[in-house]
Amino acid sequence: MTTFEGTFTQNLSTLRFAIVIGRFNDLVTEKLLSGCQDCLKRHGINIEPDSTQVDYIWVPGSFEISLVARQLALSNRYNAIICLGAVIRGHTPHFDYVAAEVAKGVAAVGFQTGIPVIFGVLTTDTMQQALERAGIKSNLGWNYALNALEMASLMGQIHEQAFSRYQGNNPPELPVSSHNHPLSESFSKIADQPE
Ligand code: INI
C-alpha cells in the first residue's frame, strides 16, 4: 500500500504558482492576496515583483477567473493556480449566476488540465462576512496558499511514482501538469531513447 500526502518541507525553490485575482470587490480580494502572499513567503517562495516563482493575473471579476486559469494551466508553467475572488449577494439573482459559474469553471480547469486549481472565491451574503474571512477574523487567503503548496507537493509525488514505474516500454499517460514537474525533463530523455 502506498499513502500519498502533500508536504510543506520539500525543496520549494523549483515550484511556480499563478494567482488569478478578481478586481470586483477588491477591498476583499486584495486582502485575500496579502494572506496568500504571506503564506507563500513564509514557506520560502519568492513573491517579489521580480520573482519567477509567482505570477499575478488580475481579471475584472470572478466570472472571468476560470477562462484565464485555464489558459494559464495549459501553458504548463505552473505547479498550482490559486483563484481569488469575492462574490457577495446583492438584491438580484446575479450572485447565483456568477458564483455557480466560477465554481464550476474552476473545478473544470483542474479536471481538464491535471493542474491543481485552488478555489479561493468567497461567496457570502454580506461584505462584512467577506471581510471577516479576508483578514478581520482570519484570512482564508493564507489557507488557499497552503492548499496550493500541499497540492503541488502531492501531484509531484504522484508523478514521481508514475516516473519510477516507467520501464521504457509503455510511457504512462501523465496529465499536462507533469510536463513542468522537475522530473519531466529526465522523463522525456528516457522516452526519446531508442529501445
Ligand atoms: N464579480 C465578482 O467577483 N463578485 C461579485 O459579487 C459580482 N457581482 O455581484 O456582480 C461580480 N460581478 C462581475 C462579474 O464577475 C463579471 O466580471 C462581469 O459580469 C463581466 O463579465
Folded structure, characterized:
Helix content is 46%, strand content 15%. The chain has 195 residues and is an alpha/beta fold. It has a single domain (17-156), classed as Lumazine/riboflavin synthase (Rossmann fold, 3-Layer(aba) Sandwich), CATH 3.40.50.960. Strands 2-1-3-4 form a four-stranded parallel β-sheet, with helices on both faces. The longest helix has 26 residues, at 140-165. Bound molecules: 5-nitro-6-ribityl-amino-2,4(1H,3H)-pyrimidinedione (INI). Residues 22, 24-25, 60-64, 85-88, 90, 94-95, 98 line the site of 5-nitro-6-ribityl-amino-2,4(1H,3H)-pyrimidinedione.
List keywords for this structure.
alpha/beta; Rossmann fold; four-stranded parallel β-sheet; globular; binds 5-nitro-6-ribityl-amino-2,4(1H,3H)-pyrimidinedione
Which strand order do you get reading across the main beta sheet?
Answer: 2-1-3-4
Shape: globular
What is the CATH architecture assignment?
3-Layer(aba) Sandwich
Q: Determine the mean pLDDT.
A: 88
> What is the straight-line distance between the termini?
31 Å
How many E strands?
4
**Uncertain runs with pLDDT below 50, 5 residues or more?**
181-195
Bound ligands, each once: 5-nitro-6-ribityl-amino-2,4(1H,3H)-pyrimidinedione
Q: Could you state the CATH homologous superfamily?
A: Lumazine/riboflavin synthase
Quick synopsis:
The chain is of the alpha/beta class and 195 residues long. The protein has six helices and four strands.
